[in-house]
Amino acid sequence: MTIDVPRIQARVAELLAEYGIPSAAIGVLHDGELAELAVGVKNVETREPATTDTVYQCGSMTKTWTALAFMRLVDEGKVDLDEPVRTYLPGFTVADPEASAKVTPRHLLYHTNGIEEAYGDPGEDDDVYERMVENIADAPQVFPLGHTHGYSAALGYAILARILEVHDGKPWDDVMRERLFDPMGLTSTNSWHEQVDETRTATGHLIRSMDEGPIVTPVDYLPRAFGPGGNITSTAREVLAMAHALLNDGTAPNGQRIVSAESIRQMTRSRVPVPDPYMFGPEWALGLIVCDWHGETVYATDGSTIGQNARLRLLPDSNTAIAMLTNGGPRESFYRKVFNEILTDLGMVTIPDLPTPDPTLNLDLSSYVGVYERPGARYEVSAEDGKLYLTLVLDPMHAEFLNKPDHINYELLPVSETHFLIPPANPLEDTQTIAIYDFTNSTARYLHTNCRVNPRLM
């Protein structure tokens, strides 16, 4: 069974208009056969059409590429996932002595290291990851080492990159080209914006209102500090080359073995639980999210930059992968609608709906009330008239640019004693999920949403 490309193309065009997203490039790998399509424009100002050769920013999907490169080092016997980072970076130090001595590459791949992203300004030069590691000597723990899952946007994978750099004796960008991109035969995938052919790139867009429509992002690309965790650019076709390796025991489409079958088994089978299991998946593997779609195991890797978004879903039982790159969003409901159209065409399992609230739950609301905060994120949970409410506090400048108030209020609808739905506050939002959990003396210690963990401040 194959997808009806003209039908999918027409449906995607409708959804792009509905959501205010300028373009999407989509690839489907099914039983070794590749189907591609592109819809929309690369830039709303130039109106140049997007094609299947258009290059998009992959955001945190980069972490899966970095994990693959690191697993090549594991295959060579040069590193062990469970040896302390200090084995490979002897001067490695953070504020907490236990984390300094015991954090391992597996903790970093899992996002269970708990180290705050307090790496300062490491600059934009080739020594950026060396500087990041040096700068975290006083970085505190968000949570104790290994205690819970809490997404590390940049730091965790920058430490992995530094281990690669020290071993290979060259900058991470060169490591990625020599360990992955060249062996896989990739010509459109790069790790730093200066390497990219600008004539082929999609421009990121933000949307502040449907009346205004999408506008070109004021931030062209993420800082270099995000490189190993967020700066790869690629096409849908070459994202699926990575998917091919993950689905075929580490072998790329050109027949080159990238990693061993054992490394792929480790990447998919070595897992930790995610406190909020509903938005992305209930477990986190080594560079991949693990999803449960009506009993079928699906692996995911996603990413966003400021105005671009990437999604990849791997369905090993069906020998299928679906990639979508956009220059707008992210919108969870857009992704679900597009992927479900494709999955339905293929006669395959579709994405589960979010759970429904349980009005019969009798919660002690005082256990959840409090302020949960990290640098750049503040959540205030309050109770009123028998209901819980969440206030998201935005940076005033960020709020002003997006035409949003700096305090956004939501009702929390309980699904269980630790999980809640967050209904949208405006038409540009989708329903989100949140976990408030880890109770000590009847008081929750952490709030987990969008994979990020925020400890109780008060």
Let me know the average pLDDT. 97
How far apart are the termini?
A: 55 Å
Count of individual beta strands: 20
- Output the radius of gyration: 21 Å
Portion of residues in beta strands equals 15-25%
The number of helical segments is 12
What are the low-pLDDT stretches, counting only 5+ consecutive residues below 50?
Answer: none
Strands in their spatial order, largest beta sheet: 2-1-12-11-10-9-8-7
Question: Can you tell me about this structure?
Answer:
The chain contains 12 helices and 20 strands. A hairpin with a 2-residue loop joins strand 14 (377-384) and strand 15 (387-393). The model has no long low-confidence stretch (mean pLDDT 97). The termini are far apart. The strands form 4 sheets. It has an 8-stranded antiparallel sheet with strand order 2-1-12-11-10-9-8-7, sandwiched between helices. The chain has an 8-stranded antiparallel sheet with strand order 13-14-15-16-17-18-19-20, with no helix packed on it. Strands 3-6 form a two-stranded antiparallel sheet. Helix content is 26%, strand content 24%. It has 458 residues and is of the alpha+beta class.
